[in-house]
Structure formats: structure tokens, C-alpha cells
Amino acid sequence: MTQLVWFRSDLRIHDHAALSRACQRGEPVVALACICPNQSQVDGESPARQSLWRRGLTALRSNLERCHIPLKIIVADEYASLPDKILSLCEALDVTHIHFHHRYEWHERRLAHAVKKLAQTHELLTIGYHDQVIHPPGSLTTLRDDYYSVFTPFKRAWYRELTPDAWQTWPAPAPQSKTDITADPIPDPWFPTAARYDELWPAGEDAAQQRLAEFVEDHLDDYGSERDFPALDGTSQLSPYLNVGLLSVRQCLEAISLHQGGHLPDTKTGAGSWVNELIWREFYRHVLVGFPQVSQGEPFKQRYGTLPWRNDPDEFQRWCDGRTGYPLIDAAMTQLNQTGWMHNRLRMVTAMFLCKHLLIDWRLGERYFMSRLVDGDQAANNGGWQWCAS
Ligand SMILES: Cc1cc2nc3c(=O)[nH]c(=O)nc-3n(C[C@H](O)[C@H](O)[C@H](O)COP(=O)(O)OP(=O)(O)OC[C@H]3O[C@@H](n4cnc5c(N)ncnc54)[C@H](O)[C@@H]3O)c2cc1C
After folding, report:
1. What b/e sequence results for 234-246 when a residue is b if at least 16 CB atoms lie within 10 Å of its CB, and e otherwise?
2. Which of 161, 339, 352, 388 has its Cα between 20 and 30 A from that of 127?
């Protein structure tokens, strides 16, 4: 009997609840990753993010190999065919439990639900764990039992419900007994590649940990005063690593707490300001689940759904290319196009410029960002655009 761990946007072996729990059962463990190029196209996922995910998967495969856990890979044309393919693999490997981390995008939740339903009919157990957040969506609600739609009360609730073990991390699993199941090769890139992404965003848990350690050591204390100046190297640039799960939010909080002598500070310090941003990240995940219309192209506030946008195609193209004639906007868009990353302040400025100055529908900008960002994330990107357009 075998335990299957389905890796999604959580490409690490440290602090991986699903992997640790599966290993604790004392049976052979097999890992799985699914690749679906058509879905990446539907999501408008950027080559930069796909490159980081694929290179992260390669690093994960090696790390798992050291634990004698083979990584199986399913390539599917579309998400609809994945549940059947996963089930066939389970039957071939005599799997009894499928462990995975939740994702909160609408189509990801639908996929996990379909896998669970199909597994049930074959008496297979699926176990989902909340990995991307400290408080699972639905666990923080207003007095009227609604999801929060405003950040500040959400943040208060986030701190109020925080327990001292909230950022406790799982160690990497010890090596398992060897099995005769072999790992699959990582498929060749299924997206346009560019060598600069490999240099700018080296993949692997070690690279993520090194960047985290350097940021905490050199920049955390000044984060509050430097984070809003794009010309300074004042933010962590860890968003791509958090996004594909080479790093977890608990590992970030643990690093802050170690730096601060064992506690999480309030927002009056540099470290407190950084926690604040991690809470924003979590807030938008709750919004995605609580207000699912936002992931289906609808505005958070319905009354803005019928705004008459100007949508000049030439002006939109100039904005995309960084040719508006406004130096700050053009520099920011050039940074995005060349590196896949943009400073938060510039994301706000370019987004507001598009929808409030050029009067172009924010959804076009949202999609363009996704097609370029190495940290493209439906929750944060949609939340950022809706916030800028409101
Ligand atoms: C229009 C717009 C689009 C955005 N699109 C994305 C996106 O696709 N993916 C993404 O990760 N972030 C997005 N953000 C949020 C933010 O700009 C980036 O997370 C941040 O710039 C990443 O840089 P950093 O890692 O140096 O952040 P730091 O300042 O070091 O912050 C630490 C972490 O907190 C999280 N974070 C920081 N600010 C925010 C925020 N405002 N909202 C949500 N999470 C935050 C990120 O995970 C980040 O890595 C967007 C913001 C706007 C205004």
C-alpha cells in the first residue's frame, strides 16, 4: 500500500505538511506533479513563472530522490482529464491515500474536488492541508459570519487568532526505505524559454532560503522606511519563491521571529511592516474564496461592472511596451518585461495609470501582468488590480 503526495505550488520538502504526514504513516511514499500546458495558457501564466516552476520541480525531484521518494509526472491536455489520470496512477501503485495542499483559485478548487469525488468512488482517501496561509479561508469571519472585505479588521482578526505554534515548521522527511518505483524525467520546457530567468530567479529551496536569510539580515530592520522607494533594494523579492512554494509563509514568519527574539512584532517596526505584507497576501486568498466572482473577471463591487472604458488599443500597446512617454511608467513596464518582476509601488502606479489615466479596463492590465510576472498569482494580482481600479 502506498501514500501519494500531489505537489502543486509547494515545490519543497521542508515545511511540507502533506509530505510529512504521508511519511509518518510508515508506508512507501510516491510524489506526483501534474503538467497541463493548455491550462497554463487559459490562466495566462507567464513563461517566467513556468520556467521557475519547472526548474523548481527539477530541484524537488533531486531532493525527493535523496529521501528515496520517486516523483511521477502526469502530462494532460486539460484539467478535465486529470482526475482519471491520477486515479489510474493510484490503481497502478496501490495507493490508499492522496495527500495535497489546497490551492484557492476557483479552477484549482474545482480540480481538487473532482479528484476527491472520483477517489471516493474507488474507496481512496484524499487529505487536503492548508499550506499557503496561517488561518484557512473561512476561519476568520466578521461578527455577521461573512468573509472580510476590508483589510484592517482582517488584520486585527489575524493577530487575535494567532497561536504561538502558528509558524512552527515541519522538518524534511527522513529517507524512506527504497522502492522499485522509478522517478519520471522532467519534460522539456513546454513554454518559450529565456536564459535570463534562470540567472535572475535561481530555483530550489536553497536559493529561496539564501534570499530570505540575506533579506532578514540586511534589509528587514529598514523595510518600513525603504519599502516604498523603487530605486532602493528595500524589499525581499521573495514573491516568486512564495508563489511556487519553494518557500512557505511559516518559514518567513519563523525567520522574522528568530530575528526578533521569538515574537512577531507589530507594524511599528520594519519587521512588523513585512508581516503586514504577508497578511495582505493571505487576505487576498480569503477574498478569492469568499468572493469567487473576482476570479471570474467580475469586479469586487458589482456596481462598477458596467463602466464605459475607452480601451484605445494603441495606448494599451504603448503601455504594455513601456512607450507611453512617462519615464516612470515606461521604466516600470520595461522592468516587468525584462525581468518578470516589478516593485509594489510601481505596480500600483502603472495599474492606476492604465485604468484612471488611459481609461482602459483594468482586466486587460490584470491579464497582461499575469502574462509577464514571474510571481503571477491570481489572488494578489486580482486583488491589486481591483484595489487600484477602485
Ligand atoms: C496591480 C498589482 C498586481 C500585483 N500582482 C501580484 C502578483 O501577481 N503576485 C504577487 O505575489 N504579488 C502581486 N502584487 C503584490 C506586490 O506588488 C508583490 O507581492 C510585491 O511587489 C512582491 O515583491 P517582494 O517579494 O519584494 O515583496 P515584499 O515587500 O518583500 O513583501 C513580502 C511578501 O508579501 C507579499 N506581498 C507584498 N505586498 C503584497 C500585496 N500588496 N498584496 C499581496 N501580497 C503582498 C508577497 O508574497 C511578498 O513576496 C501586486 C500588486 C499590485 C498593486
Report:
1. bbbbbbbbbbbbb
2. 161
